Amino acid sequence: MSKSPSRFKPLACAGFAGMVAVALLVSGCQPQTNEPAAEPSSSHSTTTALNTPRLKSADNFRDIAGVDTSYKVDGGTLRPQTAYRSNALELNNADFSTLNGLGITTVIDLRTPQEIEEHPDRVPDGARYVNIDVSGGATGANPDASIKMDTPEDAAKLLEEANDQFVTDQGMRDRLGQVLTTIAQSDGPVVFHCTAGKDRAGWTSAILQMTAGASADDVMANYLATNDYTKDRVEATTEKIRKAKGDQAAEANAVLLGVQKSFLQTGLDAMEKNYGGIDRYLAEGLGLAPDVVQQLRDKLVQA
Known about the structure:
The protein is α/β, with parallel strands linked by helices. It has 13 helices and eight strands.
């Protein structure tokens, strides 16, 4: 049985519905910045250099194979230019042209119908568009009034509890199983995304990397890279909130807009507790047949 990475986690919704909602609304409605942030380096030496384009209008777009180089796994490395993660594909013309040049064949939109209506994708030419609403219909328009988010601690707890739902909520697991099956059975490169590209997409990315055999350190480093990719935008948004609502609101929203180790780790801990690791989570939690898991590994790993 594969070991699950040692400490990780991403986002969810109110009740469950409201939870995902609050975070999605705040984290998804930020202006994009024109300058890319510094890229983090992997904690492991790798062999394949990556040259993934940076998109100004989708600043969290990146290859799940790594940041500067592809991550090592048993038998090789993660295969570049196979699966990309992103925030919403509200692309300017230059970025749309860039995405078209990557040969994307499938776009998997993890968002709710309301999110899609408010911020529709620009789908690459010829690509198949698939919507799998991972959160099950929760939107930022109907947050649960009982949810507290007055302090940074409240915001962190919201996202930690949300990540737990990726493991413990049956509906979420069913839909995540659909996402991974779609990726496994897609011909050509795939891009999957949510609104901010950090929670639903972050968990999906982590599960794919773990399925391929990436180390705990690399999976966590890749998850935390969101803070580097979106740094300028998050800082600008936080300052707007500070001016409008004060320091406490700004500090709470700064936590909500980014990622922390404890977010991903909460989901990973739940996976370990309930399934003993990635293999049983895929098979029993997500309901993936052995041939689908093998398809995923064959797709994601190169010798």
